[in-house]
């Protein structure tokens, strides 16, 4: 008897969730440990930049490595890199070694995302691929937040947090190691055409870049800022956990709204939310914990919205032959922005202080809102019959499927574009809309 759809890919989702828990622990522990030992602010910021830089390398090497040994074997190798990364942190606070560790982690985690997303896309059928990918994203983000919360419940004085990270990484090997899912076929080479992606959807392309920068800034620098301003271990851990809930509380309703109105209006609204929440946090500082948690949860959720709605908007304007180069180009754009903005903030922090990342977030969100507003005035919306349904995605897990599984990216939903065939409800909306232009 065939396994139920979601159960058939549960081994991959389970492995990634185990690793997400370990990641949440380390993301909370590293800035807390560095702040407690009173290292210069740029040291903690360099950890964020190192993760993003390693992520770019992971994107470049994962495809050739998967072609060489297959999905299951390279997944175990990437988990081994995560374990080595955590082991370096367990040796004690050595900034240079920790920067190397975080770069190694970036390589490993982006590689694991590529393996997991492409494997799920290959195993899933079109009618339930979207649900599988949405469940994958939610499981990962909730697992990450749970790991951050777990950090608040364990002693941080010794090396227990990285050791627990090693434990969860090792546990994460087991589901994939025991899965009966066949390995997907070797991936093809994919041409990355940045110019074509820009011509297809400037708003989508710039939006994915903005989301890469915004996500790395809020997720990476918030624990540094909180620890430097007197929050204890439990407060930092709980704050990171609550931020992950913003994905459900903010992204889902805004994403559903984007299925009913021009997505660019939703993107502008989300940018204004981000700028507003960052302004409140910058002006008010860290007062009541409940207020701070609410502000940062809304902020993080709106950031997730930018990524998912930008992807949907770009896919609305792409034809079936454009899906793979579009997804590949947007992945590179996301990765580059996720590296450049943390690097810039790290360099600016000694001058602007620990709130530097907030200033950059406000500027980036308002700049993207202005760009989208200009495009909104110049370009007509996509007719409703040609749009696709919004699906939950996260800016922490970029769409990497097209790099190693272009056939899945061409034919399915969730982590890859959906078919352009309209649903029954879509077919009745705005039948007289004029043809769309690129937006």
Essential attributes:
Growth Hormone, Chain: A, 75% helix
Biggest sheet layout: none
Label the overall shape: globular
CATH top level assignment: Mainly Alpha
Using only C-alpha atoms, the radius of gyration works out to 21 Å
Helix content: over 70%
- Which stretches are poorly predicted, pLDDT < 50 over at least 5 residues? 412-438
- Number of separate strands: 0
Query: What is the helix tally?
Result: 17
What's the helix-strand series?
HHHHHHHHHHHHHHHHH
Strand content: under 5%
Structural class: mainly alpha
Quick recap of the structure?
The chain has 439 residues and is mainly α. The chain is built from 17 helices and no strands.
Task: Explain the overall architecture.
The protein has 439 residues and is an all-alpha fold. It has a single domain, classed as Growth Hormone, Chain: A (Up-down Bundle), CATH 1.20.1250. Helices cover 75% and strands 0% of the residues. It has helices at residues 5-8, 10-36, 41-69, 71-90, 95-123, 126-151, 160-178, 194-200, 202-228, 233-258, 263-284, 289-316, 323-352, 356-378, 401-404, 406-411, 424-427. Helix 2 (10-36) crosses helix 9, helix 3 (41-69) packs across helix 9 (202-228) and helix 4 runs antiparallel to helix 7. It is globular and about 55 Å long.
What is the secondary structure topology, with strand pairs?
Blueprint: H1 5-8, H2 10-36, H3 41-69, H4 71-90, H5 95-123, H6 126-151, H7 160-178, H8 194-200, H9 202-228, H10 233-258, H11 263-284, H12 289-316, H13 323-352, H14 356-378, H15 401-404, H16 406-411, H17 424-427
């Amino acid at each position: 008897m065939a396994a139920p759809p979601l159960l058939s890919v549960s081994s991959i989702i389970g492995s990634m969730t185990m690793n997400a828990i370990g990641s949440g622990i380390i993301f909370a522990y590293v800035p807390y440990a560095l702040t407690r030992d009173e290292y210069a602010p740029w040291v903690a910021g360099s950890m964020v930049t190192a993760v993003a830089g390693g992520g770019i390398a992971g994107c470049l090497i994962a495809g050739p490595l998967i072609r060489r040994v297959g999905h299951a074997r390279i997944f175990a190798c990437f988990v081994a890199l995560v374990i080595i990364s955590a082991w370096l942190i367990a040796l004690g606070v050595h900034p240079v070694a920790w920067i190397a560790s975080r770069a190694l982690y970036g390589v490993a985690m982006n590689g694991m995302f590529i393996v997991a997303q492409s494997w799920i896309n290959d195993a899933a059928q079109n009618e339930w691929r979207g649900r599988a990918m949405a469940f994958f994203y939610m499981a990962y983000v909730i697992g990450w937040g749970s790991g951050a919360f777990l950090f608040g419940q364990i002693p941080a004085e010794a090396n227990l947090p990285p050791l627990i990270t090693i434990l969860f990484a090792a546990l994460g090997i087991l589901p994939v190691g025991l899965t009966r899912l066949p390995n997907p076929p070797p991936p093809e080479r994919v041409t990355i055409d940045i110019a074509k992606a820009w011509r297809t959807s400037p708003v989508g392309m710039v939006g994915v870049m903005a989301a890469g920068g915004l996500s790395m800034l809020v997720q990476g620098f918030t624990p540094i800022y909180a620890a430097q301003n007197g929050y204890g271990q439990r407060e930092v851990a709980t704050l990171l956990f609550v931020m992950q809930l913003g994905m459900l509380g903010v992204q889902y309703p805004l994403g559903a709204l984007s299925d009913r109105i021009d997505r660019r209006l939703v993107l502008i609204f989300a940018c204004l939310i981000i700028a507003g929440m960052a302004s409140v946090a910058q002006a008010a500082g860290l007062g009541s914990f409940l207020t701070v948690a609410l502000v940062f949860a809304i902020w993080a959720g709106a950031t997730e919205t930018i990524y998912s709605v930008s992807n949907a908007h770009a896919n609305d304007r792409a034809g079936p032959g454009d899906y793979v180069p579009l997804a590949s180009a947007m992945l590179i754009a996301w990765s580059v922005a996720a590296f450049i903005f943390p690097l810039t903030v790290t360099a600016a922090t000694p001058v602007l202080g620990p709130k530097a990342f907030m200033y950059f977030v406000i500027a980036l969100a308002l700049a993207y809102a202005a760009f989208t507003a200009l495009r909104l005035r110049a370009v007509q919306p996509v007719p409703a019959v040609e749009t696709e349904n919004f699906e939950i995605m996260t800016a922490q897990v970029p769409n990497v499927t097209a790099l190693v599984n272009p056939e899945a990216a061409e034919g399915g939903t969730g982590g890859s574009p959906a078919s352009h065939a309209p649903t029954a409800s879509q077919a009745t909306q705005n039948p007289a809309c004029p043809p769309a232009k690129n937006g």
